[in-house]
Design brief:
Elements: H1 3-6, H2 9-20, H3 28-37, H4 48-71, E1 76-80, H5 87-90, E2 97-102, H6 104-110, E3 120-124, H7 130-133, E4 141-146, H8 155-168, E5 171-179, H9 181-190, H10 207-210, E6 217-222, H11 227-230, H12 235-245, H13 247-251, E7 254-261
Parallel strand pairs: 1-2, 1-4, 2-3, 4-5
Antiparallel strand pairs: 5-7, 6-7
């Protein structure tokens, strides 16, 4: 795998380590895949604090996806940049069609651990090529999970990707984490992805500007480290974790947004 693809092992490692502790995220599949595919993790990537953060982020995306499917379990679920994540099996809510997407070499590894069914498929997709979005399965509504993806796309590529989603689906519910421009610049020195060779990331300061000329609206901003999940840590760990991954400073680096496009009225 190239350097960008190798970044998928950082959240995989974190989820596997936290799952073993039986807190935050129950992910035996991550444990299994890490045992088979993992390699010696070095530097910041080994941090238990980062592992907790990765697991909490995954859990927030899981809970949001559950909520969206409770509202409409016929919507197409698209996990773009899925890596080796097992969200498709962690979700308890039934779904009609779930598609996990990533670059071809990642999907090739996924196929060793996941099996396609009538309701679950895997697609090779490069998010920087908006034409590939148009080749995804048809559906009136889509629930789109963009976890750990936006920072590998320029603002223009991300805008074009969102525009392609808008052209493809009448109704969209999107959850997307982004670095700020400051966060992207700071990542050159502080980001654990540097440990696998990635040196260039991109940030978004004003999410509204990104979708200003689209029909997609910013619905809400969410926390990736909500108090209910932080409370699952040992008391001796909570204070330091909060200093690292909650509060105003963290928000100047890394943010999580919910976007939506509601179905247009008939004839519009």
């Amino acid at each position: 795998m190239n350097e960008v693809n190798k970044t998928l092992f950082i959240p995989l490692y974190g989820k596997a380590q936290v799952s073993k502790q039986h807190i935050i995220l129950d992910d035996p599949v991550a444990e299994k895949i890490w045992e088979a595919e993992g390699f010696p993790i070095r530097g910041k990537s080994r941090s238990k604090w980062l592992a907790y953060n990765m697991a909490m982020r995954a859990r927030v995306f899981d809970d949001w996806a559950e909520t969206m499917l409770q509202q409409d379990n016929t919507a197409l679920v698209l996990h773009i940049g899925c890596g080796l994540d097992s969200r498709c099996s962690r979700i308890k809510q039934t779904y009609k069609n779930w598609v996990d997407c990533d670059l071809p070499e990642v999907i090739a590894v996924r196929r060793q651990y996941f099996t396609e069914t009538d309701s679950y498929q895997m697609y090779a997709l490069d998010a920087s090529d908006s034409q590939q979005v148009r080749e995804l399965p048809d559906s009136d509504a889509a629930v789109v999970l963009l976890e750990g993806l936006s920072m590998y796309l320029t603002n223009d590529q991300l805008h074009n990707f969102l525009q392609a989603l808008q052209e493809k689906f009448d109704t969209l519910h999107i959850l997307m984490d982004v670095y700020t421009e400051f966060g992207a610049k700071a990542s050159k020195y502080k980001n654990p992805v540097n440990d696998v060779g990635v040196t260039t990331l991109y940030g978004v300061d004003n999410i509204g500007d990104l979708v200003n000329d689209l029909d997609i609206q910013v619905k809400a901003e969410h926390s990736m480290t909500p108090p209910k999940l932080v409370d699952e840590l040992r008391p001796s760990e909570k204070t330091f974790f909060k200093l690292l991954f909650t509060g105003r400073i963290y928000g100047k680096i890394y943010r999580l947004f919910e976007l939506e496009r509601e179905k247009l009225p008939h004839g519009k």
